[in-house]
């Protein structure tokens, strides 16, 4: 992609998320469009990443998974390829709006909490095999939505995750704090570790759970990203002893991909664990594009798709609207998901999670007033969830 397009996307994402009530207003995010721009492929990984001194002793696995990374693919313990067909679910409070609780989020998450079994059964019936649930260490610590403190938040999350996995779904638990941190991620990321340890401990016996520690890091450079992610990987796999696939978001809201830095992360993890268990997250939205065709299709392939045969890549957040262009661009959504199903996933992409199952605004799959599938929801079901992918 061009530098101008990167800048436009970087600036658009925070604006759109504020309008949807997904962020507190943080000054660092206003700088995202200026500081998150880089020329992918022209950077050289820091020397320490290429000549790591990390010990090569493999830590004892404490938290396991029924999935593993084999080459560029996710596979079940049986060896069968696992293609993620998922949706994002707003299941627990995970953000503040203007530094205060968001009543709309509280309402939607309360609906999930009232009958999670029925919700996840309905999602499973669409053909989905995965749900992505965002959490927040900030909300967890400050307990601004519900009573019960950290223990109450953790108990609620555990019950919801168990309800999902009892329906045969895998769950991706993703921490949403880094989106709001912006450049502050460099000093704030370790503050999430205490909650991450507690969540991993609470869910340690549930082998259908995957973890995504930092959703959409932004306003940081590739070397800074590498520093944060290496430390996060060391915590999860070295300190906690997590032995399953660890999903790492790339910089610039997980839109960018740089094979030099991806290779450095894989090398680091291999030295730490004996083999790499890293999966790279990709996020993509229409961003005003009239279609997912021609030059726009070539853009995605050049930026991301061309690397899916070399690195394990998973689309953990794909949606119609992020603040640019029309709000009802369902034609783009159909073309994009159809391309993923027919071309990208057979070529190596490890599947996709659609944004989002239960919300207000253009990206919701369920109409809040009726509970029925929206036009976008119908496309996600027909063009992703109901598809069969060869093992």
- Beta-strand fraction estimate: 5-15%
Rg, nearest Å: 19 Å
Span between termini: 32 Å
Taken from the alpha-carbon principal axes, the silhouette is globular
- SS elements, strand count: 10
Query: What percent of residues adopt helix (DSSP H or I)?
Result: 40-55%
CATH architectural grouping: Alpha-Beta Barrel
Q: What is the CATH class?
A: Alpha Beta
Mean pLDDT: 87
CATH superfamily: Glycosidases
What sequence of helices (H) and strands (E) makes up the elements? HHHHEEEHHEHHEHHHEHEHHEHEHEH
Element layout with pairings:
Elements: H1 3-19, H2 27-30, H3 32-35, H4 47-50, E1 67-70, E2 73-76, E3 84-88, H5 103-114, H6 116-125, E4 130-135, H7 137-142, H8 149-165, E5 170-175, H9 177-181, H10 185-188, H11 193-202, E6 209-212, H12 222-240, E7 246-249, H13 251-254, H14 259-273, E8 278-285, H15 294-303, E9 313-319, H16 330-347, E10 351-354, H17 375-385
Parallel strand pairs: 3-4, 3-10, 4-5, 5-6, 7-8, 8-9, 9-10
Antiparallel strand pairs: 1-2
Helix pairs in contact: 11-12, 12-14, 16-17
Structure description:
With 391 residues, this protein is of the alpha/beta class. Helices cover 43% and strands 13% of the residues. It contains 17 helices and 10 strands. The strands form 2 sheets. An 8-stranded parallel β-sheet has the order 6-5-4-3-10-9-8-7. Strands 1-2 form a two-stranded antiparallel sheet. 52% of the residues are buried.
């Amino acid at each position: 992609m061009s530098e101008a397009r990167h800048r436009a996307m970087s600036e658009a994402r925070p604006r759109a998320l504020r309008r949807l009530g997904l962020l507190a207003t943080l000054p660092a995010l206003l700088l995202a469009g200026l500081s998150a721009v880089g020329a992918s492929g022209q950077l050289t990984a820091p020397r320490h990443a290429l000549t790591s001194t990390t010990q090569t002793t493999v830590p004892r696995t404490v938290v396991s998974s029924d999935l593993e990374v084999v080459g560029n693919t996710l596979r079940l313990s049986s060896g069968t390829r696992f293609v993620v067909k998922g949706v994002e679910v707003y299941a627990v409070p995970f953000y503040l709006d203007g530094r205060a609780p968001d009543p709309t989020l509280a309402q939607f998450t309360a609906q999930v909490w009232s009958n999670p079994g029925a919700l996840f059964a309905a999602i499973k019936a669409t053909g989905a095999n995965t749900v992505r649930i965002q959490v927040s260490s900030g909300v967890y610590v400050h307990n601004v939505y519900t009573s019960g403190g950290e223990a109450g938040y953790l108990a609620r999350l555990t019950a919801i995750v168990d309800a999902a996995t009892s329906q045969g779904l895998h769950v991706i638990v993703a921490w949403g704090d880094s989106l709001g941190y912006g450049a502050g991620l460099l000093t704030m990321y370790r503050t999430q570790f205490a909650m991450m340890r507690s969540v991993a401990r609470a869910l340690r016996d549930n082998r259908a759970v995957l973890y995504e520690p930092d959703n959409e890091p932004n306003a940081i450079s590739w070397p800074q990203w590498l520093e944060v992610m290496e430390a996060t990987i060391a915590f999860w796999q070295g300190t906690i002893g997590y032995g399953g696939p660890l999903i790492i978001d790339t910089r610039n809201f997980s839109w960018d991909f740089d094979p030099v830095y991806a290779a450095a992360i894989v090398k680091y993890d291999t030295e730490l664990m004996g083999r790499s268990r890293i999966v790279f997250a990709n996020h993509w939205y229409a961003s005003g594009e009239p279609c997912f065709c021609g030059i726009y299709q070539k853009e995605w392939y050049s930026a991301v798709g061309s690397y899916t045969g070399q690195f394990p890549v998973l689309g953990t957040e794909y949606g119609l609207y992020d603040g640019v262009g029309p709000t009802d661009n369902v034609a783009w959504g159909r073309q994009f998901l159809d391309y993923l199903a027919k071309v990208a996933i057979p070529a190596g992409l490890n599947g996709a999670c659609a944004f989002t199952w239960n919300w207000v605004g253009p990206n919701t799959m369920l109409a809040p007033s009726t509970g029925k599938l929206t036009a976008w929801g119908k496309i996600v079901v027909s063009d992703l969830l109901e598809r069969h992918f060869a093992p």
